[in-house]
Amino acid sequence: MSEHELDARRMLCPMPVIKVQDAIKDLHSGDILNVVCSDPGAIYDVPAWSRVHGHQVLLAEVRDEEVHIQIKVEAS
Q: Which domains does the chain have, with CATH numbers?
């Protein structure tokens, strides 16, 4: 297991979801992806995409006007 960071600040929908999708393609089951977004809609969109694709959302919260999401990658 390894942790990875994705900075999706200053991107509007649907770009945060697309960036998460692209990043997860290169990760392995058990890896953690930490995502930071400035688009307030990402708090709903990224976890929804993650769950639909079988990944586990460990954290989804707003801190200092930024969305922080932590995703555990599951086997596809």
A: 3-72 (3.30.110.40)
Least confident of 6-10, 42-46, 72-76: 72-76
Q: Which residue's structure tokens are 């801190």?
A: 63
Active site residue 37: no
Residue whose tokens read 């599951």: 74
Of 5, 6, 10, 13, the active-site residue reads: 13
47 cis-preceded (ω within 30 degrees of 0): no
pLDDT interval class at 9 (50, 70, 90): very high
Q: Evaluate if pTM is beyond 0.85.
A: yes
